């Protein structure tokens, strides 16, 4: 399997890669409109809300896992086959595109984030939409070992909250029902995986970052965020660092905060 993070230079050497634009904005701006205004030439747009999540609800959270068939249909529409190598990007350091990459990788499919995202693209952007021939991506069940439900979240040796520190501390909460974090969680914001240039830190530097809180094996980690999207970025960062694969709590804070379960600030 390819590394979960690849460079523009690596991409330039490939002859058969499906490039996917997965821009999405918490403030309600349209990722589709952003794509139409300018995207990496040849990239196809994949809507996170339509294909990478199920219908939101307080019981399941803002971005529940999509059903396998819904996920597969979205990928087929994006021209992705069972053997297509996928490289995804956004304009937020990979924080949104990570959802697609993570879901593909847990299914054993070659997929990676474009390091630096849209901002790293050295050439002109295109406004011509890419409409590929439908692919043949097969629906596959989600592997249970890659995910943790709400009743088992606090049983992990390391529960990592990847939201901004002020949300973790409960000082602000722009979208979910309560402000705070799951009891026992430690805070390692996704932004800490990136350097000032918006690219991932080196694997050794990432390894040191996680070792600083005692994490040496990702298999001991459950990651969550607001809705199960940005947490995938941290899981890919750990894999990029050579720590292996952790687990995702898909419901994340949006699900937990909608219950009367205890929380901390």
Would you count the extended β strands for me?
9
Percentage beta strand: 5-15%
User: What Rg do the Cα atoms give?
Assistant: 17 Å
Examine the secondary-structure arrangement and name the CATH architecture of the largest domain.
3-Layer(aba) Sandwich
Helix/sheet category:
alpha/beta
Counted by DSSP, the helix tally is: 9
Percentage of residues in helical conformation: 10-25%
Spatial shape: globular
The side-by-side strand order for the widest beta sheet comes to 1-5-4-2-3
Mean pLDDT: 97
Low-confidence segments: none
Order of helices and strands: EHEHEHHEHEEHEHEHEH
Q: What is the CATH class name of the largest domain?
A: Alpha Beta
**How does the major sheet shape up?**
5 strands, parallel
CATH fold name of the largest domain: Oxidized Rhodanese, domain 1
CATH superfamily of the largest domain: Rhodanese-like domain
Distance between the termini: 39 Å
Q: How many discrete domains?
A: 2
Keywords: Pyruvate, Repeat, Transferase
InterPro entries: Rhodanese-like_dom, Rhodanese-like_dom_sf, Thiosulphate_STrfase_CS, TST/MPST-like
Protein name: Thiosulfate/3-mercaptopyruvate sulfurtransferase
GO molecular function, one term: thiosulfate-cyanide sulfurtransferase activity
Would you kindly provide a written description of the structure presented here, covering whatever features stand out?
There is one protein chain. With 265 residues, the chain is α/β, with parallel strands linked by helices. It is 24% helix and 11% strand. The chain has helices spanning 8-12, 31-37, 48-51, 68-77, 97-106, 165-168, 203-211, 231-240, 252-256; strands at 5-6, 17-21, 44-45, 85-89, 111-114, 158-161, 186-187, 221-224, 247-248. The strands form two sheets. It has a five-stranded parallel β-sheet with strand order 1-5-4-2-3. It has a four-stranded parallel β-sheet with strand order 7-6-8-9, covered by helices on one side. Helix 5 (97-106) links the parallel strand 4 and strand 5 (111-114). Helix 5 crosses helix 8 (231-240). The longest helix is centred in the N-terminal third of the chain and has 10 residues, at 68-77. The mean pLDDT is 97. Pfam families: Rhodanese (PF00581). This is Thiosulfate/3-mercaptopyruvate sulfurtransferase. Residues 13-127, 153-265 form the Rhodanese domain.
